[in-house]
Specification:
Helix content: 25-40%
Strand content: 15-25%
Number of domains: 1
Strand order of the largest sheet: 1-2-3-4-5-6-7
CATH topology: TIM Barrel
CATH superfamily: Metal-dependent hydrolases
Distance between the termini: 9 Å
Number of helices: 8
Largest sheet: 7 strands, parallel
């Protein structure tokens, strides 16, 4: 029983399929502790995908009152997933200050200002170059922005990678990872373990899909303790996917808590 910290609905994230009723019903059926809705907000997204991944925030807070009523006693928290770009840090910091979000995820869906989901040419670079640059951008993200709680899917870059062994590893760019992880710890932010990334790689038939142990060991060694479990669900069937397995894995490195946020305050529950 966990709180799932990263999820999307069709109401405010154009790439999601589930309604808020389906989300809440599925969470209750799975006996979850709670759920955070973190709708996409992609400022200056470079691709034309029809419906922009930006939503009306006042409308979001107005409409989700009905969601809270529907949830009843089940803990439903209202969040947002910001799509990082360097020039948006100040804008995001100021925007978030105006609204009563419970939780804010900051993620990087771009590589060289393009989303690898659409821009597969980025993988024409060799893996070390590609992954090092991405983790450097993740470090820029943490160092440059302030008004967020969780760093989303550091391994987004390997989701669509065509390399024979696509899992991102600490050994590929240790200096970049140290900079990234140290920045998270200094700002007292939380590192997300995104189980959608695990599921996507398993659907490709890959076996090396859990987070690289050296990344987790190094994070812990540097003093990192804040970890969040996020399924990044866009459909109801993947809520809390692989959470039990990942929780047991994390405990082998010394981690003991799953972190989520309520009114921007970190709350913990045992792994």
């Amino acid at each position: 029983m966990f709180t799932d910290t990263h999820n999307h609905t069709k109401h405010f994230s154009s790439d999601a399929k589930m309604t808020y009723q389906e989300l809440i019903d599925a969470c209750k059926a799975k006996n979850m502790n709670g759920v955070v809705v973190t709708e996409h907000y992609e400022g200056d997204y470079p691709h034309d995908i029809g419906d922009p991944q930006i939503f009306d925030i006042p409308k979001y807070f107005e409409e989700t009152k009905a969601w809270l009523d529907y949830a009843g006693d089940f803990p439903l928290y209202r969040g947002i997933e910001l799509g990082y770009q360097k020039h948006l840090c100040t804008f995001y910091d100021e925007m978030i200050e105006k609204y009563p979000f419970d939780e804010v995820i900051l993620s990087n869906h771009l590589y060289r200002a393009m989303d690898p989901y659409f821009f597969r040419d980025c993988y024409k670079e060799d893996m070390l170059t590609c992954y090092t640059r991405y983790i450097e951008e993740m470090a820029d993200l943490v160092e440059g922005c302030n008004n967020f709680d969780i760093v989303g899917h550091y391994d987004y870059i390997n989701r669509y990678a065509p390399y024979e062994k696509p899992q991102i590893k600490y050994s590929q760019c240790p200096e970049s990872f140290d900079r990234f992880l140290t920045a998270i710890i200094k700002k007292d932010k939380t590192l997300e373990i995104n189980t959608r990334s695990i599921e996507k790689m398993r659907r490709k038939g890959l076996t090396d899909t859990l987070p690289d142990p050296q990344i987790l060991k190094r994070y812990y060694e540097l003093g990192g303790r804040n970890i969040s479990l996020g399924s990044d669900s866009h459909t109801k069937d993947t809520l809390c996917i692989h959470f039990d397995e990942v929780a047991e894995y994390l405990k082998t490195f010394g981690f003991t808590e799953n972190s989520f946020y309520v009114k921007r305050k970190r709350i913990s529950e045992p792994l």
